[in-house]
Write a structure and sequence with these properties.
alpha+beta, 2 domains, 4-stranded antiparallel beta sheet, 8 strands, about 15% helix, elongated, membrane, signal-anchor
């Protein structure tokens, strides 16, 4: 075989492309390592008020009834320290957690927001209503002594793995001992 056909233009381009991909992979991994051990926690101030509990029909549950909690919440958090060159966006969500006899772990997302790097990085929700319902699959919310609200977020990177984190600061509330009766009112 002649020497010039061993190193054709195609073979040389393939070798250069393969080497370039290897170098880019190594550089991407080095960039990922530069942010691997950074602290991705922040403080949050939560407040929950005006808690009301209703008993509603739930045709998906075994008992046919469910507890539906309605409340107002305030949330203030500065997430600007979480952004660095490797953070593309944050998916921030507020979780209500409680335990029941039937289910030892109940986690219900009641509010969420996607924060991009170039948008606002201070969350200031004042007297907001939940985006999603806090509904138990039975009647376990009535007179529940410990429902904990926690702010969690996913850090979406440019390179690396999707980090799950939790803000420092949470609030625990007690649910009402009785159900609210009457027609529900909506804020205008």
């Amino acid at each position: 075989m002649p020497a010039d056909s061993m190193h054709s233009l195609y073979a040389r381009a393939n070798a250069i492309f393969a080497f370039m991909l290897w170098v880019l992979s190594a550089v991407t991994f080095a960039c990922f390592l530069s942010t691997l051990f950074l602290n991705y926690t922040t403080n949050v101030h939560l407040d929950v008020s005006n808690v009301k509990l209703r008993r509603v029909n739930d045709y998906a549950s075994e008992s046919g009834v469910a507890d539906l909690a309605a409340f107002d919440f305030s949330l203030k958090a500065d997430v600007s320290p979480l952004f660095n060159w490797n953070v593309k966006q944050l998916f921030v969500y507020l979780v209500a957690e409680y335990a029941t006899e039937k289910n030892p772990v109940n986690q219900v997302v009641i509010w969420d927001r996607i924060l991009h790097r170039n948008t606002r990085v201070v969350i200031d929700e004042r007297i907001g209503t939940p985006k999603y319902h806090l509904m138990d699959d039975g009647t376990s919310l009535k007179d529940h002594k410990n429902v904990t609200f926690v702010l969690r977020y996913n850090v979406v990177p440019n390179a690396g793995y999707l980090r799950l984190a939790q803000a420092e600061g949470q609030i625990q509330i007690e649910m009402p001992e009785s159900y609210t009766t009457g027609k529900p009112t909506r804020k205008a």
